[in-house]
Amino acid sequence: MKTLIKNGRINTRNNETTAAEIWIEAGKIKAIGTGFPEAEFDEVFDAKGQLITPGLVDVHVHLREPGFTYKETIAAGTKAAARGGFTTVCAMPNLDPVPDTAEKLKQVYDRIKQDAVVNVLQYAPITKNLRSEELVDQEALIEEGAFAFTNDGVGVQTAGTMYLAMKEAAKNNKALVAHTEDESLLFGGVMHEGKRAKELGLPGILSVTESSQIARDLLLAEATGVHYHVCHVSTKESVRVIRDAKKAGIHVTAEVSPHHLILIDEDIPEDFGFWKMNPPLRGKEDREALIEGLLDGTIDCIATDHAPHGLEEKSRSFLQSPFGIVGSETAFQLIYTHFVETGRFTLEQVIDWMAVKPAEIFGLDVGTLRIGAPADLAVFATAHESVIDKDEFLSKGENTPFVGWKVKGETLMTFVNGKIAWFKGE
Ligand SMILES: [Zn+2]
Q: Which of 72, 139, 271, 425 is the right S-S partner for 64, CB 3.0 to 4.6 Å?
């Protein structure tokens, strides 16, 4: 099978692009150039002068299956990813049952093989059933394809458990990925502790609830030599301790979500669940520190934390609704519109943080436009404006505060291993 994507542009450096066609053969990129003879190809796609990038890589999504298929399924969640230009996603293990044994992990992978339209790498938990102190059998789970280990959704509450898990992960050469949240510092909080929480009369979540556990883990990572990856960094103090740890030579990497880069607590208009996420939207200085952290390399990549929920449960107040917002279908457009169009980030940086780096830090053979690499590609209409419309979402979740926002960079096509996984049509 020979496929041609004609009439596209690829990023060269900064915001510069050059005309390019992509020749795909046997699922791989065979050549990147211009003037390929159309008649020799089995199928030809017209990129219409728009931007072709490597397929985006999202190291943090919730696909909710098995256990919560009313919120999302592997089929819907990966279609949503493809519609967002993502070709590889890493799925969190807060499922029911939690894939904490090889047998349970295999069942998740069987469903992924059957239903997924993009590459899915499944995380395994750090401890049995996420909440216990009992460690999983890492080796058995790795044999079954565990991507890395995380209890995302909750923090690991005791240092001893984290230490032993890190030691084991270091031995197995796998990353330990952490949602950091010290529950003894939670005090029932549902949004960032600040002026807006007071105005809305809601209990606040302190910044140290996150940052103090990161500080603990960084020292444990130093002691064990593990690759420690911090999920959804949200506070300026977290950025500072990660920056210091990198300077000290500790093997730490970190991600930030689009919503934490764009929104702050003061943007929350009312006590409504679509604005509730964990970690919460923080203050202005926190947002600035996150942007600075990306720019100076303290934060390595952007990840969505795509967290779909049922419409009814998310339409309640802050105290009543679950944490999380959907992100797969809006991430690139939001980042492109708010940072590239405004000149704060270059296109090259965004591609780096959304494709190249997430693959690189986890040692994945994807994320770049390279001859011989899997033909995982996305085509974005960076010149056209559209409106974020939840009725167009392929995700089962509609819960996002970005509905109605005007954005550029809609995804026209997404290819996974040379096959079309999303096509916008006319
Ligand atoms: Zn989390």
A: 72
